């Protein structure tokens, strides 16, 4: 898949790196010169300019992109980038800070596909690390969508099954798999699950318990 990321700050850089490691094509849009140079040094294609400017974004070839992420620290730039991206058929993901007023959130939420809160993700990750356990809620990507990782225990009903054959709710999806200390990658259709493996999932809040039982057993 091909993604356009606006902003190469803390959130944008990490998102771009993960997508690239998973084999996706990433184009960055950034107007701060030293960030542009860092992104280029990291091997990314970079369009230098204001991410809220349509002529700048068009240089990133939005028509061939699957999604655009407005991930700067300025929600106005992020929102403008998302709106331009939607005009070109892109899925839109908007970053805002958690302290924005409810009416501001509602204004943005009506027009974009997803809203993310980096602060909330960080807090949830810290909580997970402190609590431990097999089924870890890394963070809430949106009001209803959660990112989770699962360590498959001995005796799990999915041990020995192929990833594609695991019967999950329609709203849940395994998007990465790792064995032992190996990095997590997108699983192949025939990848078999073994005890000790880790899988990463996107799951809606109301199906978390069903997914937990499917992967961990009763």
TrEMBL record:
Gene Ontology terms: cellular component: plasma membrane
UniProt entry keywords in alphabetical sequence: Ion transport, NAD, Potassium, Potassium transport, Transport
Domain RCK C-terminal: 135-217
Gene3D superfamilies per UniProt: NAD(P)-binding Rossmann-like Domain, Regulator of K+ conductance, C-terminal domain
A Pfam family: TrkA_C
InterPro entries with a match to the protein in the record: K_uptake_TrkA (IPR006036), NAD(P)-bd_dom_sf (IPR036291), RCK_C (IPR006037), RCK_C_sf (IPR036721), RCK_N (IPR003148), Trk_Ktr_HKT_K-transport (IPR050721)
Domain RCK N-terminal: from-to ranges: 1-116
Domain of life: Archaea
UniProt GO molecular function: potassium ion transmembrane transporter activity
Function: Part of a potassium transport system.
Protein name per its UniProtKB record: Trk system potassium uptake protein TrkA
Upper lineage: Archaea, Methanobacteriati, Methanobacteriota, Stenosarchaea group, Halobacteria
